[in-house]
Design a protein that fits this description.
The chain is an alpha+beta fold. The chain has 3 helices and 4 strands; from the N terminus they run βαββααβ.
Amino acid sequence: MSVVRINAITVPADRADELVERFANRAGEVAKMPGFEAFELLRPSDDRDVFLVYTRWESKAAFDNWLSSRAFQHGHAQPSGQGPVSAHAELWSFDVVQQETAGESTGEPTGKTTG
């Protein structure tokens, strides 16, 4: 069963583009990790100031290995001493218990349900 980790990052409006740029500059590192399945950076399109960093992993152990990796440490180092872009961050943890993908139109629930 996959696990999802979402980092909810509060970013002042005047630094939002900087956060996007920082992620773009380190793109691809997480995809090299064993057990990695998906990544999305979600920018708010309303008046919120919270970005969501969505990652999906084959297991909790795969995510934990990412957290302790050199690539994670390097990607989260503060460039040029500029300090963090965020005012607050919170990690949310989920287990995937049901999944549906585009193009599956059998009328039956798709994916695997556990639980």
